[in-house]
Specification:
Chains: A mainly alpha (about 160), B alpha/beta (about 325), C mainly alpha (about 500)
Helix content of chain C: over 70%
Number of domains of chain B: 2
Largest sheet of chain C: 2 strands, antiparallel
Order of helices and strands of chain C: HHHHHHHHEEHHHHHHHHHHHHH
CATH superfamily of the largest domain in chain B: Bordetella uptake gene, domain 1
Strand content of chain B: 15-25%
Number of helices of chain C: 21
Number of domains of chain C: 1
Number of helices of chain B: 11
Largest sheet of chain B: 9 strands, mixed
Number of strands of chain C: 2
Strand content of chain C: under 5%
Radius of gyration of chain B: 21 Å
Shape of chain C: globular
Oligomer: heterotrimer
CATH topology of the largest domain in chain B: D-Maltodextrin-Binding Protein, domain 2
């Protein structure tokens, strides 16, 4: 370990990520549209975000130096189930575009429940159907909202 | 965010082609007897969120619309991009008359600046819904008692004007007024809404506020603000003593207008049907009450002709004004 | 007094009572669900209410408005999903309480605190509306700037245990608030050409992501683990000792919440967040906050409901809406032919008492329902994680999508969920980020407006009495902990 004891590697990592983020966003502030001279009575559009970025960066430096924080031990590795759950969410987003929201919602509740260790598919299906029915009644029937239909569904409708 | 616009336009063309094919298919029937219109729910697209001023106007019109048209109506709120999101959505729909937009001048300003996937000549006026004359008002404590005094003061120093949006309708009205009256370029202080402008006019944080009658009604009655001039050629009935722009010798016409339009491509007989239906719905008692009580001008509702003329006029003037302040190259 | 009895007479009609009841029930439901807010519902029902008499319409919309602000706390406590932005501060401590099996307690205290805050503000509305409304005129951009700075000044102390990390999170929140059209220059910032971003980032997806989705990911790591702690404790309501503990939080927050509600530019969300800070600042148990402090539920809940009565003050007395919902109620009043303003209080006192009476009744009603159903609702926390959290995800998607009918907002929610997950993992708290997000826009806009008004002379801030007072309070608040430590040190060394 080259890192001194009072300085945590995790904190350095966090600080580095935040500083990189600041650099990118700072770069973006150069891409704002210019304000016509005739309208420039007050402060420019980029000044405030840059000021705030300065504060973020300063705090990140403090974290890197271990000032004002309790040094952090490395957190345990991310549980595989978290990755799988995240993957299920992404699959949800893709499926919505293909088969529409309500079928996706039904499959998601059953699928994630099963993934998390529930083995009674019948009970999962019942709860998923109930949930979709209630939300459909509230948001579509009562409030007149429209939800994504999906490519497949719009083909035959 | 990937640019959705091109796909939408492509989809529209395809949908449009499909629509024409369907129409061609119907042509077996003797002399191409017209497809019934409207045949399904008509969508009213607005840029305002649920509960916004324009949204409420739409909902008021819709109270009588189903009987006037014999079909259901639904409001579609597409918030964002100063009307660009609403225009983009409408552009993605088939041009069969089942999608109409409720717009304000803001949409035109957005179109001018090329920020929407729609060109001005694609916008077809149907009927005007509201016409809300704008006023210049000052606080009770203000030394400016008349429009003439305000103009005189504005010639010696830059007055501060409270407006709602930079490069928006209020802003252009203030600039147009100042120019015509020969005042110095005013200092523009933008606020989030009419309520904020009222408060800051009363407390003299700004010299002058640009407001509609309804926005400041309670303060006008209580004497907390004074209306100096309306920016339209005619005086407004509830404020008979406030001079119009014409009275003080200025040829200007600035009011907040809302109205229905659709996009080019809708068959002419459908445009007519939409115009008639909308006018009928807005003649309904509920809508008339709404117009009267919210302080809109009594002749708010007009048909295609005058509404399109007003849109054209605003488009040309607005373009010139935006060029002048440098928001348009 | 005649007007009072006349008003009560109108209200005691069975039809009116039914409307107040219906408004309250509907308000609780839409308040609890993310994606349907009280303001959306009032707007959707507005054309419907026009057919009613003015008194009936106002009683219905008023009770819906009161109940919706309470409803938000139910989902915030049970599934860490604030049903309304104003309930986000409630989730800070409400959900940790539910997670350790005290959902009933949290729901109970939320109902009681909400009702007390709401009823207090309705009384203020009756007694002092015309007088208090004049206060709104005293608040221009410089005063709001000073108030926002005061609100932000406490962020270092709330949330996680490191002031540096809290400040960083708050600054990120402020940065997030700069997304969209800049009011004073008309320039679009960080929108990447997306319409969905031009009016700024939507609150609901960010909140739902930060709270619900990050919790869902956290739960994923413990899938299948037997959550015995939840099943062990039985669902119980708050005890007298709990109420006594919260008395200070409730009374303080009722007053501050009403005051903030009266200011047209600030709403229930700001009221709840500022009161969360103040509750913590004046609490004897600061260390409990963020880990399930019952006071941390009582404070913001009293505040966001007090803000309702507060928001009605400028709406009725000046015709200037104090919140989104009251803006729609104002539109409803105007269409009904009622002209709000100072004269309303002298010309139509009966109608005003109907408004007050129905809001009062709605507050009592949801208190009864809230306490009655707390045990029932709390059982939601007993649903096995394998059923509950996938359902929460679907609710989050629907709730994020619904307001703007946009999948973009769902992506925002997912991104916020990942940020929330990383925040927890690396010892940051979402609380300061939300403070920054809510107050950030106000700080920047009012600062720029002030400088325009002051002709860019910064010193002019000091010519405004309210600003000077607010700055002084802010400075005192920041210096107090240091001074206190110095005082303790001096006493210890003297002894």
């Amino acid at each position: 370990m080259t890192v001194p004891g009072w300085r945590s590697r995790t904190d350095l990592l966090v600080a580095a990520v935040i500083l990189a983020f600041c650099a990118i966003v700072y770069g973006l502030t150069y891409r704002f549209d210019a304000v016509p001279v005739a309208l420039m009575d007050g402060l420019g559009a980029e000044l405030f975000p840059r000021l705030v970025l300065g504060v973020v960066a300063l705090m990140a430096v403090l974290i890197a130096l271990g000032i004002g924080i309790t040094p952090m031990a490395a957190p345990p590795p991310v549980h595989p189930m978290v990755w799988m759950t995240g993957g299920a969410m992404l699959a949800f987003m893709v499926a919505v575009e293909v088969i529409g929201l309500w079928p996706t919602a039904f499959l998601f509740v059953v699928g994630l429940g099963w993934l998390w260790g529930e083995r009674s598919l019948l009970r999962l299906a019942l709860s998923a159907a109930g949930l979709c029915a209630v939300l459909y009644l509230l948001f579509v029937r009562l409030l007149g909202g429209t939800f994504p239909k999906g490519l497949l569904t719009s083909l035959w409708s | 965010m990937p640019t959705k616009t091109p796909t939408h336009i492509r989809l529209t063309r395809r949908a449009f082609a499909a629509g024409s094919a369907a129409a061609a298919g119907l042509a077996w029937s003797p002399l191409g007897a017209q497809e019934k219109f409207p045949s399904k729910t008509i969508e009213v697209v607005t840029h305002a969120g649920v509960g916004g001023g324009t949204d409420i106007t739409g909902r008021m019109m819709m109270v009588h619309a189903p009987e006037a048209f014999g079909t259901e109506f639904a409001i579609v709120n597409k918030v964002g991009g100063s009307g660009a999101a609403a225009l983009a959505y409408a552009a993605s729909r088939p041009r069969d008359g089942h999608t109409i937009l409720l717009i304000t001048q803001t949409h035109l300003l957005t179109v001018m600046q090329g920020k929407a996937p729609v060109k001005y000549d694609e916008i077809v006026g149907l009927a005007r819904a509201t016409d809300d004359p704008q006023f210049l008002m000052v606080g009770k404590s203000s030394p400016l008692k008349t429009a003439q005094e305000m103009i005189a003061a504005g010639k010696t120093k830059a007055l501060k004007f409270g407006v709602t949006q930079l490069g928006g309708v209020d802003h252009l009205a203030v600039l147009g007024f100042a120019k015509k009256a020969g005042m110095q370029a005013p200092t523009i202080v933008p606020f989030r809404g009419g309520g904020d402008i009222v408060i800051n006019t009363v407390s003299a944080n700004v010299d002058v506020g640009i407001l509609n009658y309804a926005e400041a009604e309670s303060q006008l009655k209580a004497g907390d603000v004074r209306a100096l001039v309306t920016l339209t050629p005619k005086r407004l009935a509830p404020l008979p003593d406030v001079p119009s722009a014409k009275d003080i010798g200025l040829d200007i016409n600035y009011s907040t207008v809302r109205g229905f339009v659709t996009l080019k491509g809708v068959a002419d007989d459908r445009l007519k049907a939409l115009e008639d239906g909308l006018l009928k719905a807005m003649k309904g008692q509920m809508y008339a009450t709404y117009i009267e009580r919210s302080g809109q001008s009594a002749d708010s509702v007009v048909g295609r002709g005058p509404w399109q003329a007003q849109l054209d006029g605003f488009y040309n003037e607005g373009q010139a004004a935006l060029k002048e302040i440098g928001l348009l190259k | 007094m005649d007007a009072f009895f006349a008003g009560m007479g109108v209200l005691l009609d069975p039809y009116m009572l039914f409307l107040v009841f219906a408004g309250t029930v509907l308000g609780i439901v839409v308040g609890a669900l993310p994606g349907i807010s009280g303001s959306t519902t009032t707007a959707l029902l507005l054309p419907l209410t026009i057919a009613m008499t003015p008194a009936a319409a106002i009683a219905f919309l008023g009770s819906l408005y009161c109940a919706a602000n309470f409803g938000g706390s139910i989902t915030a406590i049970l599934i860490n999903t604030p049903g309304d932005p104003s309930a986000s501060a409630t989730a800070f401590d409400g959900y940790p309480m539910a997670a350790r099996g005290e959902a009933g307690k949290a729901l109970g205290i939320s109902a009681v605190a909400s009702a007390i805050g709401g009823i207090f503000s309705v009384f203020v509305l009756i007694v002092a509306a015309p007088l208090l409304a004049r206060m709104a005129y005293q608040f221009g951009p410089p005063e709001y700037f000073a108030l926002a700075v005061f609100g932000l000044s406490m962020v270092a102390a709330i949330g996680g245990d490191s002031p540096v990390k809290n400040l960083l999170a708050a600054a990120l929140g402020v940065l997030l608030a700069t997304v969209g059209l800049d009011l004073t220059t008309g320039v679009e910032r960080f929108t990447f050409g997306a319409y969905a971003l031009s009016d700024g980032i939507e609150f609901i997806p960010v909140l739902v992501g930060l709270f619900a989705i990050s919790e869902l990911l956290e739960q994923a790591a413990q899938h299948g683990a037997v959550q015995s702690y939840i099943k062990l404790k039985k669902v119980e309501l708050p005890t007298l000792a709990d109420f006594r503990k919260c008395a200070k939080a409730i009374s303080l927050s009722s007053v501050i919440g009403t005051f903030i509600g009266v200011l047209p530019a600030l709403g229930a969300t700001t009221a709840a967040l500022i009161c969360y800070n103040e509750t913590r600042r004046w609490s004897k148990h600061k260390e409990e906050f963020g880990r399930g402090a019952i006071e941390g539920v009582a404070g913001p809940e009293a505040a966001n409901n007090a803000a309702v009565g507060g928001a009605m003050v400028p709406t009725l007395a000046l015709g200037i809406p104090g919140s989104t919902t009251s803006a729609i109620i104002l539109a409803g009043l105007i269409i009904q032919g009622i002209r709000p303003g100072p004269h309303l209080f002298t010309e139509q006192p009966t109608l005003l008492y109907v408004v007050f009476g129905s809001m009062f009744a709605a507050n009592l009603l949801y208190l009864v329902m809230g306490l009655g159903m707390a045990k029932l609702f709390a059982r939601i926390a007993l649903i096995p994680a394998t059923y509950l959290w996938p359902a929460v995800f679907v609710l989050s998607v629907v709730g994020s999508y619904a307001p703007n009918q946009s999948m973009f907002d769902v992506w925002v929610m997912l991104a916020a969920g990942v940020v929330g997950f990383l925040f927890r993992r690396y010892g940051f708290s979402p609380a300061p980020l939300i403070m920054g997000l809510v107050l950030g826009k106000l700080v920047e806009e009012t600062l720029k407006q002030s400088l325009l008004i002051f002709d860019r002379n910064w010193l002019m801030f000091l010519t405004r009495p309210v600003v000077v007072v607010l700055f002084a309070i802010t400075a005192a608040g920041l210096a107090a902990p240091a001074l206190l430590r110095l005082w303790r040190f001096w006493r210890a060394s003297a002894a």
